[in-house]
Amino acid sequence: MQLRPDQLAAHLQKGLRPLYTLWGDEPLLVQEAADAIRAAARAAGHTERQVHTVSGAHYNWSGLLGASQAMSLFADKQIIEIRIPSGKPGKEGSDALQRYCALNCGSNISDTVTLVTLPRLDGTQQKSGWFTALDGAGMTLKFDPIDRKLLPQWIAQRMAAQGQRVQGGEAGQRTLAFFADRVEGNLLAAHQEIQKLGLLFAAGELSFEQIESAVLNVARYDVFKLGEAVLAGQVERALRMLDGLQAEGEAAVLVHWTLSEDIRALKRVRDALSAGRPLPMALREARVWGAKERLMERAVPLFTDNAVAALLQAAQVCDGLVKGLRHPDWPVDAWDGLKRLVLMTVQHTAAPQGSGKARVAASLALTA
User: Looking at the domain 148-214, which fold is it?
Assistant: First the structure.
C-alpha cells in the first residue's frame, strides 16, 4: 500500500505495520523515514535489530528466511532490515522476498517489523513480482528529490523546526533563493548547512549577511536537469549549472548529448506541428515525457523553424568541439562552445523582459 512521506508521522502514531519499503534516490529523506520507523518500533518493544545487506549475486537468502523465523533468546520482538543497494535481488532473491512476505507479513499484528530500503527503481522493477509482494504486504514510501522550485520552502521549514527564520517579504525570498542556489542537488549537505546555522546563530530571524557568511557552496548538478533549466528559460541557473558540471569533472560529451537531444526533440515536434498534428500528439511521437513535456509545451511556440535549424547547426559544431575539432567561428574550448549553445537556446526561452535577456545578449557578445 502506498503511503506519502508526509503521512508517515501520523501513520506511526496509530500503530506499526509489519513491513515498510522505502525507495528513491534521496538518501537524506530515506534515512530520516527509516529512523522514524526504528524509533516507533523500539517504543513498541522491538528491541532486537538485525541488518541484512544484499551484496552480489551470491547472497544467502536462506539465512534471511531462517533469521526471520528464529526466536530471540533476549527479546520477543525484533526489527529486521533488508538493504538492497542495487535494487536487483535477482531470481533467487525475488522468490525469497515473495516467500518472506507470505511468512512474516500476513497480518497487521506481528512480532517482527521489517524495513526494506531500495534505491530508485525503474518501471520494470516496480512491476516485478518481488516489489509487488512488498507493496501488497505492507506500506511503501517513495522519496523523490526536492524540486528546485520547492527547495526554498523546504529550507524555510527546516529552519523553522530549529527556531530560525529569514526576513519577511521579498528580502526573505531572495535569501532563501540564494540558499537554494548554494545547495541545489545536494539535500544531505543542505540539511548539514541548516544544522550549522542552528549552531552558529541563536533562534530568531537571520539576515542575508549571516546566511551568506555561513552557508557553503555545496551544490551538485545533474546534467539532465540542465536541459530543463534551458527549456524553462532560467538563464542564471543554466549558466551556473554548466559551470558546476565542468567543475565537478562531468564529461563535455555527455553535456552536449543532453542539450542536443532536446534540440532534436524540438525539431521533431516542430515538424509534427507543421504536418498538422496537435501539440500533445507531437510530443508523444517525439517521446517527450514528464517534466520535459510541460517545458516543451511552453518552449515550442517560442521557436521558429529557422531558429531550430540554426540550433541544430550549432549543436553539430559543438559535437566537433567536444571531440577536439576546431571551428573558425567558435571558441576553441569545448565548454565555451557548450555555453554558447546554451545561450543560443535560452535566448528564445527566457522571459521577454528583465535582466535575463540582457545577460543572454551580453554573454553572446562575449563568446562571439
Answer: Helicase, Ruva Protein; domain 3 (1.10.8)
**pLDDT digits 0-9 by tens, 312-350:** 999 999 999 999 999 999 999 999 999 999 999 999 888
CATH number for the region 223-367 comes to 1.20.272.10
The domain locations on the chain are 5-143, 148-214, 223-367
pLDDT digits 0-9 by tens, 51-96:
999 887 778 888 777 766 665 545 568 899 999 999 999 899 999 9
User: CA geometry: angle at 178 spanning 176 and 183, to 5°?
Assistant: 95
5-143 and 148-214: same fold?
no
Cβ partners under 8 Å of residue 333, min gap 6? 321
Per-residue model confidence as pLDDT tens digits over 237-282: 999 999 999 998 999 999 999 999 999 999 999 999 988 999 989 8
The top-level CATH class assigned to 5-143 is alpha beta
